[in-house]
């Protein structure tokens, strides 16, 4: 096939699998998602993968491309192929359902464990809390708030690979944004969880999560903030116990 690309695609499920090579015609402005879709529509309809928006909004098309986690809809072939060859795999650190589709249950369960949901105490009948956008807490929350749960950071994290209990960058980043939300009333409870054995202090600050986040968030900085916050919380707790 003239002007073709060799694409090695992971095929298999939870029990294992192998790479299968496909010859795909190269097109102008072609993305990795275009390539995978072409394979599924023209060569093998049984190929399984996940996508939704195709315009870099939802993050559901995340896969490993040449060993790096990427949104495939925003990754252009001509920028990442090597000697007219591509390797596409399911996201690292997540169980494989089939081919390129991963089971995200573990990822979202850790979000739940980290108390990653807002817990307020005001009712709809009360006046909306006035929070200055210039406050340091609001700015810290805003810096971490644009996560869309694509799991790119989770796939890039070596600590997750070593320690399956580790909550991971996305869950801890979410916890940090809530810890800086003045309206949230579960901060002590959340801090106990994220400062535990599977929490922020397990992070090695290697910054893979920050390097590959498509939304340019910095979960490493959020986790560092949780480390500082938990240390202050612990010291204040000890002080209160000693001095009443």
Q: Report the radius of gyration as a whole number of Å.
A: 21 Å
Mean pLDDT: 92
Tell me the structural class: alpha+beta
The largest pleated sheet is described as: 5 strands, mixed
CATH class of the largest domain: Mainly Alpha
Helix content: 25-40%
Q: Spans with pLDDT under 50 lasting ≥5 residues?
A: none
Write the layout of secondary structure elements.
Layout: E1 4-13, E2 16-25, H1 32-42, E3 62-65, E4 68-71, H2 77-80, E5 85-89, E6 96-98, E7 101-102, H3 105-113, H4 136-144, H5 152-156, H6 158-162, H7 169-179, H8 187-194, H9 208-212, H10 219-243
Parallel strand pairs: 1-5
Antiparallel strand pairs: 1-2, 3-4, 3-5, 6-7
Describe this structure in words.
The structure is a single chain. This protein is an alpha+beta fold. The protein has two domains: 4-102, Roll (Ubiquitin-like (UB roll)), CATH 3.10.20; 105-243, Fumarate Reductase Iron-sulfur Protein, Chain B, domain 2 (Orthogonal Bundle), CATH 1.10.1060.10. Helices cover 38% and strands 16% of the residues. The mean pLDDT is 92.
């Amino acid at each position: 096939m003239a002007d073709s690309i060799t694409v090695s695609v992971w095929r298999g499920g939870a029990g294992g699998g192998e790479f299968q090579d496909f010859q795909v015609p190269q097109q102008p402005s072609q993305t990795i998602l275009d390539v995978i879709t072409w394979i599924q529509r023209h060569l093998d309809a049984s190929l399984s993968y996940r996508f939704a928006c195709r315009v870099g909004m939802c993050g559901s098309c995340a896969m490993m491309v040449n060993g790096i986690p990427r949104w495939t809809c925003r990754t252009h072939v001509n920028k990442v192929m090597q000697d007219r060859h591509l390797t596409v795999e399911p996201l690292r650190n997540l169980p494989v359902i089939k081919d390129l589709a991963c089971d995200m249950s573990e990822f979202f369960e850790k979000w739940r464990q980290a108390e990653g949901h807002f817990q307020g105490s005001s009712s709809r009948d009360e006046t909306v809390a006035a929070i200055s956008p210039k406050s340091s807490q609001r700015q810290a929350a805003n810096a971490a708030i644009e996560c869309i749960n694509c799991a790119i950071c989770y796939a890039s994290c070596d600590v997750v690979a070593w320690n399956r209990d580790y909550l991971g960058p996305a869950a801890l980043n979410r916890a940090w944004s809530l810890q800086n939300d003045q309206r949230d009333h579960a901060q002590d409870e959340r801090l106990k969880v994220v400062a535990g054995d599977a929490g922020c202090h397990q992070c090695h600050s290697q910054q893979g999560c920050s390097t590959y986040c498509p939304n340019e968030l910095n979960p490493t900085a959020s986790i560092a903030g949780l480390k500082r916050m938990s240390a202050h919380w612990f010291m204040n707790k000890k002080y209160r116990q000693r001095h009443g």
